[in-house]
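From the shared-data thread, chain only:
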Amino acid sequence: MFELTQGWGIVVRGLMRGTAVGLVPAVLAMVVLTGCSSEPEPDRPAGGAKTAAKGGTESAGKGGTKRAEKGGTKSAAKGGAVGAAGSPCALPVSFDLAADWKPKAVKDDPEFGLPKQGLVTLVCEIDAKPAGNIGFLRVWTGGGSGDDARKALEAFVAAEAKSRDKVAYSATKAGQYAAAEVTYLNTNEFLDAPKKERALAFTTPRGVVVLHLGGLDSAEHEQMLPAYELAKKSVRSA
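Structure, as C-alpha cells:
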C-alpha cells in the first residue's frame, strides 16, 4: 500500500510540473510588465498547512498541528480519546488522540495470534492517514504490574528493529506514570534509508504499556511527533 501511495504521488507531481511549464511564458510576461519579482512558494506539507500573515504561527488543517515560529514548539489539536471502556481499543490506560487520527483494535488471527515483541502484544493501531500522514501510533500491552518498564522497552526494541543505530534511552513521564523512552534509527537493509523511530514504556497496575511511533520515513515520523507527544502527556487511568 505504501508503494502504491508513493506511486500516485509521483504521478500527481508530474502533472503539476507539466502544468507549471505551460505557465512560464505568462509569468515572465507579468514580471516584465510589472517589474516585480517574488520568491517561489514552498511546498505545503500533507494536511493542508497554512501560514498566518500576522502573529507568526503556522497551523495544519487536517494534520491538526500548530507550531509557534518563536521557540519552534509544536502541539497537536486534540481529537478524541482511546483506551476507556466503549472506545475502539480497551486499554489499561486512556489518552488523547490528535485530530483525525483513527484508532482500531487489532484482531486476533486464529492461525498466528496477535503480533508480539518482547513482553508485549500489539492490541491497538492508531492510523495517521486520515490526518494526512502515513504511519501509525501503535499500542502494545503485556506483562505484569511488577515488570520493569526499561527492561520491557529494551526487549521491545530488540525485537522491533534488529538492525538499528543511534539508540538513546531516557527517563520521562507518561502522564503521571514514570516511563522509559527510546529514540533510534531503524537501519533495516530493506528500507530505502534509515528512518527515525521512538517508543515509550510504562508500568501500570494492569501490566506494561508500550507506545510506538514509526512512520513511512523520517519525514513522516517528524510530522507525526506532535500526536505522539499529545498521547504521552495525556496518559491517565482508563
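Residues 1-73 have pLDDT under 50 and may be disordered.
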